[in-house]
């Protein structure tokens, strides 16, 4: 039964107003990131006036001061009033997660959300009515090319890969430690993109040999923009739907299954099962829904986002169990991380 409203909530719907205005908060963060506010604050490492910041970023003082105040209001920046004048400074949150120079920066994710995701959500009513992707209306991409949208040009591909890199920078450790993967000596991360998740597998399980298997365009860009000289992983080019899979004890599918309808998911899982030896397995990493449909809200919103972008959806544990058992896997383990992404392991 839904929670009863208190008298305070009946008189003034604080939470509802917060939700209704949520898109404005997103745009405040997107805009500050785009203008370079967080990069400047990290670089200076001291409190600055709105006048000084506006001059450095080539903006109006009037507009920037309002933006800075909003960032203070959501606890992303700090402010101190000295002799009646406001001086703004960074916080641990802005330095760690929002400045581009930070190794944990979410700036690539913010760029992708702002330019590629935010415009799509204008078409949510159409997506709900039609039950299909809205890439064609939002960006002019043919519905047949929905899944290839990030690969239209090098700039779009790099933006998409940067978003994926940001995602696994903060989520990878919880994912690879949720279930003990030490029994698996060779690991292939199918569609592993920049290799960020694969590198975490190497760090946690240094005895493992880890390979990222992705299409040639992605591998080329990963090596160019996201790899170091002493990288602990290897890259292999291929198409996991249409080509042969590399041999491995464990195949990782992170953010892959939610992109497709059930038939195509089963096609891939059957293929992995056929390639696996007894004792081998597949690790699915996704944002799982609750069976009772009461959350998590992150997963529910992500499922709507998949409707807008592709063919797939987020799923509860029971649906992953069904997919894996249908493909032949057994000894299925489901582990919630308590964060954004959860894991499901199936063994042959």
TrEMBL record:
EC annotation from Swiss-Prot or TrEMBL: 2.1.1.4
Domain spans labelled O-methyltransferase dimerisation: 17-99
Biological process per Gene Ontology, one example term: methylation
Active site: 258 (proton acceptor)
Pfam families: Dimerisation, Methyltransf_2
Metabolic or biological pathway: Aromatic compound metabolism; melatonin biosynthesis; melatonin from serotonin: step 1/2
Swiss-Prot/TrEMBL keywords: Melatonin biosynthesis, Methyltransferase, S-adenosyl-L-methionine, Transferase
UniProt keyword Metal-binding, yes or no: no
UniProt-recorded Gene Ontology molecular function terms: acetylserotonin O-methyltransferase activity; protein dimerization activity
Domain O-methyltransferase C-terminal: residue ranges: 121-330
Keyword presence, Metal-binding: no
Function (record text): Catalyzes the transfer of a methyl group onto N-acetylserotonin, producing melatonin (N-acetyl-5-methoxytryptamine).
PANTHER family listed in its UniProt record: O-METHYLTRANSFERASE CICE (PTHR43712:SF2), PUTATIVE (AFU_ORTHOLOGUE AFUA_4G14580)-RELATED (PTHR43712)
Description of how the protein assembles with itself and partners: Homodimer.
Name of the protein: Acetylserotonin O-methyltransferase
Species: Polypterus senegalus
């Amino acid at each position: 039964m839904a929670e009863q409203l208190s008298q305070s909530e009946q008189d003034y719907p604080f939470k509802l107003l917060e939700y209704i205005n949520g898109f404005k908060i997103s745009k405040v963060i997107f805009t500050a990131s785009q203008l370079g506010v967080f990069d400047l604050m990290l670089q200076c490492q001291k409190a600055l006036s709105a006048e000084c910041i506006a001059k450095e970023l080539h903006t109006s003082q009037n507009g920037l001061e309002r933006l800075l105040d909003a960032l203070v209001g959501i606890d992303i920046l700090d402010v101190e009033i000295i002799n009646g004048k406001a001086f703004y400074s960074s916080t641990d949150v802005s330095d760690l997660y929002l400045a581009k120079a930070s190794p944990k920066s979410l700036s690539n994710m913010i760029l992708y959300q702002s330019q590629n995701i935010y415009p799509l959500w204008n078409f949510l009513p159409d997506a709900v009515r039609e039950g299909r992707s809205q890439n064609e209306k939002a960006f002019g991409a043919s519905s047949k090319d929905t899944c290839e949208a990030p690969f239209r040009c090098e700039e779009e591909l790099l933006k998409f890969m940067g978003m994926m890199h940001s995602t696994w920078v903060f989520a990878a450790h919880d994912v690879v430690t949720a279930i003990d993967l030490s029994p698996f000596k060779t690991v292939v991360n199918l569609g592993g993109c920049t290799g960020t998740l694969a590198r975490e597998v190497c760090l946690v399980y240094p005895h493992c040999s880890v390979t990222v298997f992705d299409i040639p365009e992605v591998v080329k860009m990963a090596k160019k923009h996201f790899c170091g000289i002493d990288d602990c992983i290897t890259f292999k080019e291929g198409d996991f739907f249409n080509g042969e899979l590399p041999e491995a004890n464990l195949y990782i599918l992170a953010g892959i299954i939610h992109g497709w309808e059930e038939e195509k998911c089963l096609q891939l899982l059957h293929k992995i099962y056929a390639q696996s030896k007894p004792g081998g397995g597949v690790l699915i990493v996704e944002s799982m829904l609750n069976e009772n449909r009461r959350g998590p809200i992150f997963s529910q919103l992500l499922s709507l986002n998949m409707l807008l972008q592709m063919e797939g959806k987020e799923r509860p544990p029971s649906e992953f169990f069904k997919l894996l058992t249908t493909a032949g896997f057994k000894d299925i383990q489901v582990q919630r991380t308590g964060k954004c992404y959860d894991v499901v392991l199936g063994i042959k």
